[in-house]
Amino acid sequence: MASMVQFRARRGSAPAKAGSARPETQRRKTIAVNAVVLIAASALAMPVAIWLLVAQAALPFVIASAGLVGGMVSLSLHQRQRFDEAALAQVTTLMGAGLILTLLDPRLGDSGLALTLMGPVLAALLAGKTIRQLSWLATASIILLSGITALFGLAETSALAQPAMATGAIAFAVAVAVIIHTTHHINAAFVVQDKAQVSAYRHLFEHVQDAVLRYSSEGELLFASRSAETLLGCPRYQVQGTALAERVHVLDRPLYMTAFADANMSGKNRTVEVRMRRDDETSSRNIPMFIWVEVRFSPVVEDADEARHEVIVMLRDITERKDADANKTEAHRAAEEASQAKSRFLATIGHELRTPLNAVVGFSEMMSSGIGGELSATHKEYAGLIHQSGKHLLDVVGMLLDMSRIEAGKFEIDPSRFQPDEIVPACLSMIETTARNKTVSLSTEIEPKLPEIMADERACRQILLNLLSNAVKFSHPGGAVTLVIKRQGQSISFSVRDNGIGMAPMALERIGEPFFQVQDGLSRQYEGTGLGLSIVKGLVELHGGALRAMSEIGMGTTMTVLLPINGPATKMAETATVLPLHREPAAPKTSWQNEKRKAQ
Q1: Which long-range contacts link 245-252 to residues 24+ away (Cβ below 8 Å)?
Q2: Which of 191, 445, 509, 516 has the most CB atoms less than 10 A away?
Protein backbone atom coordinates (compact mmCIF):
# COMPACT_ATOMS: atom_id res chain seq x y z
CA MET A 1 0.00 0.00 0.00
CA ALA A 2 2.93 2.35 0.68
CA SER A 3 4.07 1.72 -2.89
CA MET A 4 0.66 2.85 -4.14
CA VAL A 5 0.93 6.10 -2.20
CA GLN A 6 4.44 6.79 -3.51
CA PHE A 7 3.31 5.94 -7.04
CA ARG A 8 0.36 8.32 -6.96
CA ALA A 9 2.54 11.12 -5.54
CA ARG A 10 5.08 10.78 -8.36
CA ARG A 11 3.13 10.07 -11.50
CA GLY A 12 1.34 12.36 -13.87
CA SER A 13 0.82 12.88 -17.54
CA ALA A 14 4.37 14.24 -18.01
CA PRO A 15 7.21 11.88 -18.90
CA ALA A 16 8.41 9.94 -15.90
CA LYS A 17 11.62 10.85 -14.12
CA ALA A 18 14.46 8.38 -13.75
CA GLY A 19 13.49 7.37 -10.22
CA SER A 20 9.95 6.31 -11.19
CA ALA A 21 10.54 5.20 -14.80
CA ARG A 22 9.71 1.53 -14.22
CA PRO A 23 6.42 2.07 -12.26
CA GLU A 24 5.29 4.65 -14.82
CA THR A 25 6.08 2.30 -17.70
CA GLN A 26 4.20 -0.46 -15.93
CA ARG A 27 1.22 1.85 -15.37
CA ARG A 28 1.02 2.63 -19.06
CA LYS A 29 1.24 -1.04 -19.99
CA THR A 30 -1.47 -1.85 -17.44
CA ILE A 31 -3.80 0.77 -18.94
CA ALA A 32 -3.36 -0.80 -22.37
CA VAL A 33 -3.93 -4.34 -21.05
CA ASN A 34 -7.05 -3.22 -19.16
CA ALA A 35 -8.43 -1.70 -22.37
CA VAL A 36 -7.81 -4.98 -24.19
CA VAL A 37 -9.51 -6.93 -21.36
CA LEU A 38 -12.60 -4.70 -21.58
CA ILE A 39 -12.75 -5.10 -25.34
CA ALA A 40 -12.25 -8.89 -25.15
CA ALA A 41 -14.81 -9.39 -22.36
CA SER A 42 -17.38 -7.23 -24.16
CA ALA A 43 -16.71 -8.99 -27.46
CA LEU A 44 -17.18 -12.40 -25.83
CA ALA A 45 -20.42 -11.28 -24.20
CA MET A 46 -21.75 -9.61 -27.32
CA PRO A 47 -23.23 -12.77 -29.02
CA VAL A 48 -25.17 -13.63 -25.87
CA ALA A 49 -26.20 -10.00 -25.48
CA ILE A 50 -27.50 -9.92 -29.07
CA TRP A 51 -29.47 -13.14 -28.50
CA LEU A 52 -31.02 -11.64 -25.36
CA LEU A 53 -31.73 -8.44 -27.27
CA VAL A 54 -33.80 -10.47 -29.73
CA ALA A 55 -35.58 -11.96 -26.70
CA GLN A 56 -36.60 -8.46 -25.61
CA ALA A 57 -33.74 -8.12 -22.98
CA ALA A 58 -31.77 -5.05 -24.05
CA LEU A 59 -29.77 -4.49 -20.84
CA PRO A 60 -26.96 -7.02 -21.50
CA PHE A 61 -26.49 -5.57 -24.98
CA VAL A 62 -26.26 -2.02 -23.55
CA ILE A 63 -23.69 -3.04 -20.91
CA ALA A 64 -21.64 -5.04 -23.44
CA SER A 65 -21.72 -2.16 -25.92
CA ALA A 66 -20.63 0.29 -23.20
CA GLY A 67 -17.70 -1.93 -22.28
CA LEU A 68 -16.70 -2.39 -25.91
CA VAL A 69 -16.85 1.35 -26.69
CA GLY A 70 -15.07 2.30 -23.46
CA GLY A 71 -12.29 -0.17 -24.10
CA MET A 72 -11.78 0.98 -27.68
CA VAL A 73 -11.74 4.67 -26.67
CA SER A 74 -9.23 3.93 -23.91
CA LEU A 75 -6.97 1.97 -26.26
CA SER A 76 -7.13 4.75 -28.85
CA LEU A 77 -6.18 7.40 -26.27
CA HIS A 78 -3.32 5.21 -25.03
CA GLN A 79 -1.92 4.92 -28.54
CA ARG A 80 -1.93 8.73 -28.73
CA GLN A 81 0.17 8.95 -25.52
CA ARG A 82 -2.77 10.44 -23.58
CA PHE A 83 -2.49 8.02 -20.69
CA ASP A 84 -4.49 9.84 -18.01
CA GLU A 85 -7.39 10.29 -20.41
CA ALA A 86 -7.20 6.59 -21.31
CA ALA A 87 -7.46 5.73 -17.58
CA LEU A 88 -10.39 8.18 -17.28
CA ALA A 89 -12.19 6.35 -20.10
CA GLN A 90 -11.89 3.05 -18.22
CA VAL A 91 -13.10 4.58 -14.94
CA THR A 92 -16.01 6.23 -16.75
CA THR A 93 -16.96 2.91 -18.39
CA LEU A 94 -17.15 1.09 -15.06
CA MET A 95 -19.07 3.84 -13.30
CA GLY A 96 -21.42 4.36 -16.26
CA ALA A 97 -22.31 0.67 -16.30
CA GLY A 98 -22.79 0.82 -12.53
CA LEU A 99 -25.12 3.84 -12.88
CA ILE A 100 -27.33 1.99 -15.40
CA LEU A 101 -27.54 -1.11 -13.24
CA THR A 102 -28.25 0.92 -10.11
CA LEU A 103 -31.16 2.72 -11.71
CA LEU A 104 -32.67 -0.58 -12.88
CA ASP A 105 -32.29 -2.40 -9.52
CA PRO A 106 -34.66 -1.10 -6.80
CA ARG A 107 -32.48 -2.28 -3.90
CA LEU A 108 -30.00 0.06 -2.24
CA GLY A 109 -27.18 -2.49 -2.10
CA ASP A 110 -27.08 -3.97 -5.57
CA SER A 111 -24.47 -5.15 -8.07
CA GLY A 112 -24.61 -1.80 -9.87
CA LEU A 113 -23.50 0.05 -6.74
CA ALA A 114 -20.68 -2.46 -6.20
CA LEU A 115 -19.59 -1.94 -9.81
CA THR A 116 -19.68 1.85 -9.27
CA LEU A 117 -17.32 1.56 -6.28
CA MET A 118 -14.79 -0.17 -8.49
CA GLY A 119 -14.37 3.12 -10.41
CA PRO A 120 -12.61 5.11 -7.61
CA VAL A 121 -10.45 2.08 -6.83
CA LEU A 122 -9.27 1.89 -10.44
CA ALA A 123 -8.76 5.68 -10.49
CA ALA A 124 -6.66 5.46 -7.33
CA LEU A 125 -4.41 2.91 -9.03
CA LEU A 126 -4.03 4.46 -12.47
CA ALA A 127 -5.11 8.13 -12.58
CA GLY A 128 -4.04 11.46 -11.19
CA LYS A 129 -5.41 13.50 -8.32
CA THR A 130 -8.06 15.35 -10.35
CA ILE A 131 -9.52 12.18 -11.80
CA ARG A 132 -9.57 10.52 -8.37
CA GLN A 133 -11.47 13.44 -6.89
CA LEU A 134 -13.99 13.45 -9.77
CA SER A 135 -14.51 9.69 -9.43
CA TRP A 136 -15.37 9.98 -5.75
CA LEU A 137 -17.68 12.89 -6.45
CA ALA A 138 -19.44 10.87 -9.16
CA THR A 139 -19.68 7.86 -6.80
CA ALA A 140 -21.33 9.99 -4.13
CA SER A 141 -23.83 11.25 -6.69
CA ILE A 142 -24.66 7.72 -7.87
CA ILE A 143 -25.09 6.51 -4.26
CA LEU A 144 -27.43 9.44 -3.58
CA LEU A 145 -29.40 8.68 -6.72
CA SER A 146 -29.61 5.00 -5.76
CA GLY A 147 -30.92 5.93 -2.33
CA ILE A 148 -33.59 8.16 -3.82
CA THR A 149 -34.61 5.37 -6.22
CA ALA A 150 -34.83 2.81 -3.44
CA LEU A 151 -36.70 5.21 -1.12
CA PHE A 152 -39.43 6.15 -3.55
CA GLY A 153 -39.60 2.77 -5.28
CA LEU A 154 -39.20 4.20 -8.75
CA ALA A 155 -37.99 0.90 -10.21
CA GLU A 156 -40.03 -1.62 -8.21
CA THR A 157 -42.17 -2.61 -11.18
CA SER A 158 -39.34 -2.71 -13.64
CA ALA A 159 -39.16 -5.90 -15.61
CA LEU A 160 -35.41 -5.47 -15.95
CA ALA A 161 -34.61 -5.89 -12.25
CA GLN A 162 -33.73 -9.57 -12.51
CA PRO A 163 -31.67 -9.22 -15.72
CA ALA A 164 -29.91 -6.24 -14.14
CA MET A 165 -28.81 -8.40 -11.21
CA ALA A 166 -27.35 -11.11 -13.48
CA THR A 167 -25.72 -8.65 -15.84
CA GLY A 168 -24.32 -6.68 -12.90
CA ALA A 169 -22.77 -9.79 -11.41
CA ILE A 170 -20.95 -10.54 -14.67
CA ALA A 171 -19.83 -6.90 -15.07
CA PHE A 172 -18.66 -6.83 -11.45
CA ALA A 173 -16.59 -9.96 -12.02
CA VAL A 174 -14.91 -8.34 -15.03
CA ALA A 175 -14.24 -5.17 -13.00
CA VAL A 176 -12.70 -7.21 -10.16
CA ALA A 177 -10.47 -9.00 -12.65
CA VAL A 178 -9.30 -5.62 -14.03
CA ILE A 179 -8.58 -4.31 -10.50
CA ILE A 180 -6.67 -7.47 -9.51
CA HIS A 181 -4.62 -7.30 -12.71
CA THR A 182 -3.82 -3.60 -12.17
CA THR A 183 -2.83 -4.06 -8.51
CA HIS A 184 -0.62 -7.06 -9.23
CA HIS A 185 1.35 -5.45 -12.05
CA ILE A 186 1.89 -2.08 -10.32
CA ASN A 187 2.98 -3.72 -7.06
CA ALA A 188 5.33 -5.97 -9.03
CA ALA A 189 6.86 -2.87 -10.62
CA PHE A 190 7.42 -1.32 -7.23
CA VAL A 191 8.94 -4.49 -5.84
CA VAL A 192 11.45 -4.47 -8.68
CA GLN A 193 12.11 -0.75 -8.17
CA ASP A 194 12.59 -1.16 -4.41
CA LYS A 195 15.07 -3.98 -4.98
CA ALA A 196 16.92 -1.84 -7.53
CA GLN A 197 17.09 1.07 -5.12
CA VAL A 198 18.37 -1.12 -2.30
CA SER A 199 21.03 -2.52 -4.64
CA ALA A 200 22.00 0.98 -5.76
CA TYR A 201 22.28 2.24 -2.18
CA ARG A 202 24.31 -0.79 -1.16
CA HIS A 203 26.62 -0.30 -4.15
CA LEU A 204 27.01 3.36 -3.18
CA PHE A 205 27.85 2.55 0.44
CA GLU A 206 30.24 -0.20 -0.59
CA HIS A 207 32.25 2.00 -2.96
CA VAL A 208 32.03 5.45 -1.37
CA GLN A 209 35.38 6.87 -0.27
CA ASP A 210 34.28 7.40 3.35
CA ALA A 211 33.68 4.32 5.47
CA VAL A 212 29.98 3.90 6.35
CA LEU A 213 28.74 1.93 9.36
CA ARG A 214 25.23 1.41 10.69
CA TYR A 215 24.53 0.68 14.35
CA SER A 216 21.28 -0.51 15.85
CA SER A 217 19.58 1.33 18.69
CA GLU A 218 21.25 -1.14 21.07
CA GLY A 219 24.72 -0.35 19.72
CA GLU A 220 25.10 -3.49 17.60
CA LEU A 221 26.90 -3.13 14.27
CA LEU A 222 24.46 -3.93 11.46
CA PHE A 223 26.43 -2.93 8.40
CA ALA A 224 29.98 -1.90 7.49
CA SER A 225 30.97 -0.78 4.00
CA ARG A 226 33.88 -2.27 2.08
CA SER A 227 35.75 1.06 2.34
CA ALA A 228 35.98 0.44 6.11
CA GLU A 229 38.43 -2.36 5.39
CA THR A 230 40.72 0.06 3.51
CA LEU A 231 40.45 2.70 6.23
CA LEU A 232 41.08 0.41 9.20
CA GLY A 233 43.30 -2.16 7.46
CA CYS A 234 41.26 -5.14 8.64
CA PRO A 235 38.25 -7.24 7.50
CA ARG A 236 34.82 -5.90 8.30
CA TYR A 237 33.95 -8.67 10.73
CA GLN A 238 36.76 -7.51 13.05
CA VAL A 239 34.90 -4.30 13.94
CA GLN A 240 31.86 -6.09 15.38
CA GLY A 241 30.65 -5.18 18.84
CA THR A 242 32.96 -2.78 20.67
CA ALA A 243 35.94 -3.48 18.41
CA LEU A 244 35.68 -0.12 16.66
CA ALA A 245 35.65 1.82 19.93
CA GLU A 246 38.67 -0.17 21.09
CA ARG A 247 40.55 1.02 17.99
CA VAL A 248 40.15 4.64 19.11
CA HIS A 249 43.18 6.10 20.86
CA VAL A 250 42.80 5.87 24.61
CA LEU A 251 43.03 9.66 24.97
CA ASP A 252 40.25 10.21 22.41
CA ARG A 253 37.99 7.39 23.56
CA PRO A 254 35.88 9.47 26.01
CA LEU A 255 35.18 12.01 23.25
CA TYR A 256 34.17 9.24 20.84
CA MET A 257 31.87 7.48 23.30
CA THR A 258 30.22 10.75 24.37
CA ALA A 259 29.50 11.70 20.75
CA PHE A 260 28.03 8.23 20.04
CA ALA A 261 25.82 8.48 23.13
CA ASP A 262 24.57 11.92 22.07
CA ALA A 263 23.51 10.53 18.70
CA ASN A 264 22.11 7.26 20.06
CA MET A 265 20.16 8.63 23.04
CA SER A 266 19.60 12.31 22.34
CA GLY A 267 19.24 12.17 18.54
CA LYS A 268 21.91 14.82 17.98
CA ASN A 269 24.27 15.01 14.99
CA ARG A 270 27.86 15.05 16.19
CA THR A 271 31.22 15.33 14.41
CA VAL A 272 34.49 14.59 16.21
CA GLU A 273 38.10 14.10 15.20
CA VAL A 274 39.86 11.18 16.87
CA ARG A 275 42.86 8.94 16.34
CA MET A 276 42.19 5.35 15.29
CA ARG A 277 44.46 2.36 14.96
CA ARG A 278 45.07 1.11 11.42
CA ASP A 279 46.42 -2.40 10.98
CA ASP A 280 49.27 -3.01 8.57
CA GLU A 281 49.77 -6.66 7.78
CA THR A 282 52.82 -5.94 5.63
CA SER A 283 54.71 -4.34 8.49
CA SER A 284 57.19 -6.56 10.34
CA ARG A 285 57.11 -4.38 13.44
CA ASN A 286 54.39 -4.99 15.99
CA ILE A 287 53.84 -1.28 16.54
CA PRO A 288 50.32 0.17 16.19
CA MET A 289 49.90 2.92 13.62
CA PHE A 290 47.35 5.63 14.37
CA ILE A 291 45.63 7.88 11.85
CA TRP A 292 43.41 10.90 12.32
CA VAL A 293 39.78 10.17 11.46
CA GLU A 294 36.82 12.52 11.22
CA VAL A 295 33.80 10.67 12.65
CA ARG A 296 30.27 11.87 11.87
CA PHE A 297 27.40 10.44 13.91
CA SER A 298 23.97 10.81 12.28
CA PRO A 299 20.98 9.37 14.20
CA VAL A 300 18.06 7.82 12.32
CA VAL A 301 15.16 9.55 14.08
CA GLU A 302 11.88 7.89 13.10
CA ASP A 303 10.04 8.66 16.33
CA ALA A 304 11.12 11.56 18.52
CA ASP A 305 9.77 9.78 21.62
CA GLU A 306 12.07 6.78 21.20
CA ALA A 307 14.65 6.35 23.94
CA ARG A 308 17.33 5.16 21.51
CA HIS A 309 17.95 5.59 17.79
CA GLU A 310 19.89 3.82 15.10
CA VAL A 311 23.13 5.63 14.22
CA ILE A 312 24.85 6.01 10.86
CA VAL A 313 28.60 6.56 11.29
CA MET A 314 30.83 7.98 8.54
CA LEU A 315 34.61 7.76 8.89
CA ARG A 316 37.00 9.91 6.83
CA ASP A 317 40.79 9.78 6.91
CA ILE A 318 42.08 13.32 7.61
CA THR A 319 45.67 12.44 8.48
CA GLU A 320 47.09 14.44 5.56
CA ARG A 321 45.09 17.50 6.57
CA LYS A 322 46.25 17.17 10.19
CA ASP A 323 49.85 16.80 9.06
CA ALA A 324 49.48 19.88 6.82
CA ASP A 325 48.00 21.85 9.74
CA ALA A 326 50.83 20.72 12.00
CA ASN A 327 53.43 21.69 9.39
CA LYS A 328 51.74 25.04 8.93
CA THR A 329 51.71 25.64 12.67
CA GLU A 330 55.35 24.64 12.91
CA ALA A 331 56.28 26.93 10.01
CA HIS A 332 54.37 29.79 11.61
CA ARG A 333 56.13 29.21 14.92
CA ALA A 334 59.51 29.08 13.18
CA ALA A 335 58.72 32.30 11.31
CA GLU A 336 57.74 34.02 14.56
CA GLU A 337 60.92 32.82 16.23
CA ALA A 338 62.98 34.02 13.26
CA SER A 339 61.24 37.41 13.38
CA GLN A 340 61.88 37.70 17.11
CA ALA A 341 65.50 36.66 16.62
CA LYS A 342 65.87 39.30 13.90
CA SER A 343 64.37 41.96 16.16
CA ARG A 344 66.66 40.94 19.03
CA PHE A 345 69.64 40.98 16.68
CA LEU A 346 68.76 44.45 15.38
CA ALA A 347 68.25 45.78 18.89
CA THR A 348 71.50 44.23 20.15
CA ILE A 349 73.63 45.32 17.20
CA GLY A 350 72.08 48.79 17.37
CA HIS A 351 73.02 49.22 21.00
CA GLU A 352 76.47 47.79 20.39
CA LEU A 353 77.11 50.17 17.48
CA ARG A 354 75.71 53.33 19.06
CA THR A 355 78.45 53.73 21.69
CA PRO A 356 81.47 53.53 19.35
CA LEU A 357 79.68 55.60 16.72
CA ASN A 358 79.02 58.34 19.26
CA ALA A 359 82.73 58.35 20.02
CA VAL A 360 83.62 58.50 16.32
CA VAL A 361 81.20 61.39 15.71
CA GLY A 362 82.33 63.24 18.82
CA PHE A 363 86.05 62.95 18.23
CA SER A 364 85.74 63.76 14.51
CA GLU A 365 83.79 66.89 15.44
CA MET A 366 86.51 67.85 17.96
CA MET A 367 89.18 67.32 15.31
CA SER A 368 87.25 69.44 12.80
CA SER A 369 86.88 72.26 15.34
CA GLY A 370 90.63 72.23 16.15
CA ILE A 371 90.30 71.34 19.85
CA GLY A 372 93.14 68.83 19.65
CA GLY A 373 95.28 71.09 17.52
CA GLU A 374 95.17 72.78 14.17
CA LEU A 375 94.75 70.34 11.27
CA SER A 376 95.81 70.65 7.73
CA ALA A 377 93.20 71.19 5.06
CA THR A 378 93.41 67.58 3.95
CA HIS A 379 93.10 66.24 7.49
CA LYS A 380 90.20 68.59 8.20
CA GLU A 381 88.41 67.29 5.09
CA TYR A 382 88.99 63.71 6.24
CA ALA A 383 87.65 64.53 9.71
CA GLY A 384 84.53 66.08 8.14
CA LEU A 385 83.92 62.97 6.06
CA ILE A 386 84.33 60.79 9.16
CA HIS A 387 81.86 63.01 11.04
CA GLN A 388 79.32 62.91 8.20
CA SER A 389 79.58 59.11 7.81
CA GLY A 390 79.33 58.59 11.56
CA LYS A 391 76.10 60.67 11.74
CA HIS A 392 74.69 58.70 8.84
CA LEU A 393 75.44 55.44 10.62
CA LEU A 394 73.86 56.80 13.81
CA ASP A 395 70.69 57.64 11.87
CA VAL A 396 70.62 54.11 10.44
CA VAL A 397 71.13 52.60 13.88
CA GLY A 398 68.35 54.80 15.26
CA MET A 399 65.95 53.63 12.55
CA LEU A 400 66.89 49.99 13.20
CA LEU A 401 66.17 50.43 16.90
CA ASP A 402 62.86 52.16 16.21
CA MET A 403 61.83 49.44 13.76
CA SER A 404 62.75 46.63 16.17
CA ARG A 405 60.81 48.30 19.00
CA ILE A 406 57.74 48.79 16.79
CA GLU A 407 57.78 45.16 15.61
CA ALA A 408 58.27 43.91 19.16
CA GLY A 409 55.41 46.10 20.44
CA LYS A 410 57.79 47.94 22.77
CA PHE A 411 57.46 51.36 21.14
CA GLU A 412 55.31 53.45 23.45
CA ILE A 413 53.72 56.73 22.42
CA ASP A 414 52.85 59.59 24.74
CA PRO A 415 49.80 61.40 23.31
CA SER A 416 49.23 65.05 24.15
CA ARG A 417 47.27 67.90 22.56
CA PHE A 418 49.09 70.25 20.19
CA GLN A 419 48.48 72.25 17.02
CA PRO A 420 49.39 70.23 13.92
CA ASP A 421 51.04 73.20 12.20
CA GLU A 422 53.44 73.81 15.13
CA ILE A 423 55.73 70.92 14.13
CA VAL A 424 56.10 72.05 10.50
CA PRO A 425 58.88 74.73 10.86
CA ALA A 426 61.23 72.41 12.73
CA CYS A 427 60.78 69.63 10.16
CA LEU A 428 61.33 71.99 7.21
CA SER A 429 64.47 73.44 8.76
CA MET A 430 65.95 69.97 9.22
CA ILE A 431 65.37 69.05 5.55
CA GLU A 432 66.03 72.50 4.09
CA THR A 433 69.78 72.00 3.56
CA THR A 434 69.28 68.72 1.64
CA ALA A 435 66.58 70.32 -0.48
CA ARG A 436 68.75 73.33 -1.27
CA ASN A 437 71.64 71.12 -2.33
CA LYS A 438 69.31 69.36 -4.83
CA THR A 439 67.64 72.67 -5.84
CA VAL A 440 64.27 71.32 -4.68
CA SER A 441 61.77 73.94 -3.52
CA LEU A 442 59.72 73.37 -0.34
CA SER A 443 56.23 74.82 0.15
CA THR A 444 53.30 74.35 2.52
CA GLU A 445 49.51 74.52 2.25
CA ILE A 446 48.07 74.58 5.77
CA GLU A 447 44.36 74.97 6.37
CA PRO A 448 43.60 77.79 8.83
CA LYS A 449 42.03 77.18 12.26
CA LEU A 450 42.97 73.52 12.48
CA PRO A 451 41.79 71.80 15.68
CA GLU A 452 44.26 70.46 18.20
CA ILE A 453 45.19 66.83 17.72
CA MET A 454 45.79 64.22 20.42
CA ALA A 455 49.00 62.47 19.34
CA ASP A 456 52.66 61.91 20.21
CA GLU A 457 54.35 65.11 19.03
CA ARG A 458 57.77 63.50 18.70
CA ALA A 459 56.35 60.63 16.62
CA CYS A 460 54.47 63.08 14.39
CA ARG A 461 57.71 65.00 13.77
CA GLN A 462 59.42 61.78 12.80
CA ILE A 463 56.56 60.91 10.43
CA LEU A 464 56.73 64.28 8.68
CA LEU A 465 60.52 64.25 8.57
CA ASN A 466 60.64 60.79 6.95
CA LEU A 467 57.98 61.73 4.37
CA LEU A 468 59.74 65.00 3.49
CA SER A 469 63.14 63.29 3.30
CA ASN A 470 61.79 60.65 0.90
CA ALA A 471 60.08 63.29 -1.25
CA VAL A 472 63.28 65.37 -1.54
CA LYS A 473 65.47 62.30 -2.14
CA PHE A 474 63.36 61.02 -5.03
CA SER A 475 62.72 64.44 -6.62
CA HIS A 476 64.51 65.59 -9.76
CA PRO A 477 66.82 68.62 -9.51
CA GLY A 478 64.66 71.71 -9.72
CA GLY A 479 61.60 69.81 -8.49
CA ALA A 480 59.04 70.87 -5.90
CA VAL A 481 57.81 69.28 -2.66
CA THR A 482 54.57 70.47 -1.07
CA LEU A 483 53.30 69.72 2.45
CA VAL A 484 49.50 69.94 2.78
CA ILE A 485 47.79 69.82 6.19
CA LYS A 486 43.99 69.92 6.44
CA ARG A 487 41.09 68.45 8.32
CA GLN A 488 39.40 65.41 6.79
CA GLY A 489 36.35 64.32 8.78
CA GLN A 490 37.46 63.21 12.24
CA SER A 491 41.12 63.08 11.18
CA ILE A 492 43.96 65.44 10.31
CA SER A 493 45.48 64.79 6.90
CA PHE A 494 49.23 65.25 6.40
CA SER A 495 50.07 64.99 2.67
CA VAL A 496 53.53 65.30 1.08
CA ARG A 497 53.41 65.72 -2.68
CA ASP A 498 56.38 65.66 -5.09
CA ASN A 499 56.91 65.48 -8.85
CA GLY A 500 59.78 63.01 -8.74
CA ILE A 501 60.37 59.55 -10.19
CA GLY A 502 57.10 57.99 -8.94
CA MET A 503 56.33 54.33 -8.33
CA ALA A 504 54.71 51.46 -10.20
CA PRO A 505 51.45 49.87 -8.92
CA MET A 506 53.33 46.75 -7.79
CA ALA A 507 55.62 48.91 -5.65
CA LEU A 508 52.63 50.76 -4.13
CA GLU A 509 51.26 47.46 -2.83
CA ARG A 510 54.48 46.88 -0.86
CA ILE A 511 54.64 50.33 0.74
CA GLY A 512 55.58 49.94 4.40
CA GLU A 513 57.49 46.65 4.12
CA PRO A 514 60.79 46.75 6.05
CA PHE A 515 63.91 47.13 3.88
CA PHE A 516 61.83 47.46 0.68
CA GLN A 517 63.16 49.84 -1.97
CA VAL A 518 61.75 50.56 -5.41
CA GLN A 519 65.24 50.46 -6.92
CA ASP A 520 66.87 47.38 -5.46
CA GLY A 521 70.25 45.82 -6.15
CA LEU A 522 73.85 46.97 -6.03
CA SER A 523 73.45 49.39 -8.93
CA ARG A 524 70.60 51.41 -7.41
CA GLN A 525 70.78 55.18 -7.81
CA TYR A 526 69.31 56.22 -4.48
CA GLU A 527 70.81 55.27 -1.14
CA GLY A 528 68.87 54.25 1.95
CA THR A 529 67.88 51.30 4.12
CA GLY A 530 64.21 51.08 3.15
CA LEU A 531 63.09 51.58 6.74
CA GLY A 532 61.70 55.12 6.54
CA LEU A 533 58.19 54.29 5.33
CA SER A 534 58.14 51.15 7.52
CA ILE A 535 58.66 53.33 10.58
CA VAL A 536 56.05 55.79 9.30
CA LYS A 537 53.52 52.99 8.85
CA GLY A 538 54.26 51.58 12.30
CA LEU A 539 53.90 54.95 14.00
CA VAL A 540 50.68 55.71 12.12
CA GLU A 541 49.16 52.37 13.14
CA LEU A 542 50.12 53.03 16.76
CA HIS A 543 48.02 56.21 16.53
CA GLY A 544 45.09 54.33 14.96
CA GLY A 545 45.57 56.17 11.66
CA ALA A 546 46.07 55.19 8.04
CA LEU A 547 48.83 55.55 5.43
CA ARG A 548 47.84 56.03 1.78
CA ALA A 549 49.93 56.42 -1.33
CA MET A 550 49.15 57.59 -4.87
CA SER A 551 51.83 57.54 -7.51
CA GLU A 552 52.55 57.24 -11.21
CA ILE A 553 55.91 56.55 -12.79
CA GLY A 554 57.52 59.82 -13.91
CA MET A 555 54.70 61.96 -12.49
CA GLY A 556 55.53 61.97 -8.78
CA THR A 557 54.10 60.58 -5.56
CA THR A 558 51.64 61.75 -2.92
CA MET A 559 51.95 60.18 0.54
CA THR A 560 49.03 60.87 2.89
CA VAL A 561 48.84 60.17 6.62
CA LEU A 562 45.49 60.35 8.42
CA LEU A 563 45.68 60.70 12.21
CA PRO A 564 42.51 60.74 14.37
CA ILE A 565 41.86 64.05 16.10
CA ASN A 566 40.81 62.36 19.37
CA GLY A 567 43.95 60.28 19.55
CA PRO A 568 44.67 56.55 19.37
CA ALA A 569 42.97 55.56 22.64
CA THR A 570 39.27 54.61 22.43
CA LYS A 571 37.21 56.54 24.98
CA MET A 572 34.61 54.35 26.71
CA ALA A 573 32.25 57.33 27.03
CA GLU A 574 32.06 57.55 23.23
CA THR A 575 31.41 53.86 22.58
CA ALA A 576 28.91 51.27 23.77
CA THR A 577 29.99 48.61 26.21
CA VAL A 578 30.14 45.16 24.59
CA LEU A 579 29.04 42.32 26.87
CA PRO A 580 30.66 38.98 25.98
CA LEU A 581 27.89 36.36 25.90
CA HIS A 582 30.00 33.25 25.49
CA ARG A 583 33.68 32.57 25.65
CA GLU A 584 35.10 29.56 23.89
CA PRO A 585 37.70 27.65 25.91
CA ALA A 586 41.21 27.92 24.59
CA ALA A 587 42.24 24.95 22.48
CA PRO A 588 45.06 22.89 23.99
CA LYS A 589 48.33 23.53 22.21
CA THR A 590 49.48 20.01 21.41
CA SER A 591 51.62 18.86 18.57
CA TRP A 592 50.13 16.18 16.34
CA GLN A 593 53.58 14.83 15.59
CA ASN A 594 54.42 14.51 19.29
CA GLU A 595 51.08 12.87 20.05
CA LYS A 596 51.60 10.43 17.20
CA ARG A 597 54.98 9.45 18.62
CA LYS A 598 53.42 8.95 22.07
CA ALA A 599 50.71 6.74 20.58
CA GLN A 600 53.32 4.56 18.93
Answers
A1: 247/276, 247/277, 248/274, 248/275, 248/276, 248/277, 249/274, 249/275, 249/276, 249/277, 249/290, 249/599, 251/275, 251/595
A2: 516
